[in-house]
Amino acid sequence: MLIEGIFAAVPTPFYPDERVYFRKLEANMARYSRSLLAGMLLLGSTGEAPMLDDAESRDVLRTAADAAAPEKVLIAGVGRESVKATVELAEAVAGFNYDAVLVRIPTYYASQMSQAAVLHYFRCVADRSPLPVLIYNIPRCVPYNIPIELVAELAQHPNIIGIKDSSGSLERIQGAVALTHTAPRRTVIVTPVFEAVTARMLAPKAEANAAAVLSLRRRWRVVLARPSPLLL
Question: Which listed residue (24, 72, 84, 164) is catalytic?
Answer without folding.
Answer: 164
